[in-house]
Amino acid sequence: MGRRPGVFVRPVSMEEGRRLQRISRTAKDAVRLRRAIVVMMSAQGQSVPDITSLMQVSADYVRDVIHAFNEQGFEALDPKWSGGRPRMISSQVREHICLIARTSPADWKISAFSTWSLTKLAEHLVKQNVVPAVSRETLRRILREGRVSWQTSTTWKSSNDPDFIAKMHRILALYDSPPTDGRVVCVDEFGPLNLMPRKGKAWRPHRSPRRLRATYNRYDGVMHMLAVLDLATGKMYYRIRPRKRWCEFLSLLKSLRIRWPGEKLYVVPDNFSPHKHPNVRAWAAANDIELVFLPTYGSWLNWIESEFAALRYFALNGTDHRSHGEQNAAIGAYVRWRNARAEPKTSFAPDSPIRTWTEYPAKAA
């Protein structure tokens, strides 16, 4: 059998050569890039075996690319995707599958289980004659394309406060336009501060997580942190006590009065009963302190909550303190670091839907 004749690309003009070179440098599609290089190498006089060796492709592939370019020009460089075999499950049936997946087995009088697995859902679809058969992988792809994902249920606690909207707008008004005659501060309790190993994240070698003890005792009890966020400076002040009764809260208010004498204080607390103790209310009214209570189940309106989240993440997560003194020192170090970089607090949830609420939502969104 004789040797097959050499295959080379047709003569390439200077402009076509520049275009091939540009494609070989900038093409993002791997197929287009590879075909352009094959054509350019052939135009430079390299044989099919040479191109095969350098590009690590088959000789038939090189010949097919060269013949296609000779016949079609630059259109031969673009991949022609066939799209695979046609879908066996129509779009309408796929929408129906996604709809059924969003239902509960109880809706179909199935009491044996409360949620669908892919296998159980596939069996149910066959039983309901939605499809003659469907694999778990196909079902997973259908749900993914229909934007139906496996999610954890969440809870919704509805507020029964009839003045929710009025109280919320009062809080937002204090945040947006602090009164010129005083200072707005947010207060809350953080804790309980247990002595226990706390899970956290850290940079570690691959598959070598830091290990913390799983068993512990609470011989030393718990502590509680009473904290204050000053919106004018962005600084946080705190004290740690073994209890969080009305007398501890009143002591905190007295310390604020001493810290900012001569200023009216607008204190934003939640509805924790010690905050509303008659002795607390009476002393606050007599010392130019206005307690602006959050609406019921509206603790997310307290600006200090986000500071607590950061404190927990950076100062406590991933730790295993063996004494309250050690844990309190860690909290104090973080608060000092934070206060050294604090800035005035402005723009509370400027783009949040709560800004447009005219009534409390009746159910979870």
Automatic annotation (TrEMBL):
<feature type="domain" description="Tc1-like transposase DDE">
    <location>
        <begin position="183"/>
        <end position="318"/>
    </location>
</feature>
<dbReference type="InterPro" id="IPR036397">
    <property type="entry name" value="RNaseH_sf"/>
</dbReference>
<dbReference type="Pfam" id="PF13358">
    <property type="entry name" value="DDE_3"/>
</dbReference>
<dbReference type="InterPro" id="IPR009057">
    <property type="entry name" value="Homeodomain-like_sf"/>
</dbReference>
<dbReference type="Pfam" id="PF13565">
    <property type="entry name" value="HTH_32"/>
</dbReference>
<dbReference type="GO" id="GO:0003676">
    <property type="term" value="F:nucleic acid binding"/>
</dbReference>
<dbReference type="InterPro" id="IPR012337">
    <property type="entry name" value="RNaseH-like_sf"/>
</dbReference>
<dbReference type="InterPro" id="IPR047655">
    <property type="entry name" value="Transpos_IS630-like"/>
</dbReference>
<protein>
    <submittedName>
        <fullName>Transposase</fullName>
    </submittedName>
</protein>
<dbReference type="InterPro" id="IPR038717">
    <property type="entry name" value="Tc1-like_DDE_dom"/>
</dbReference>
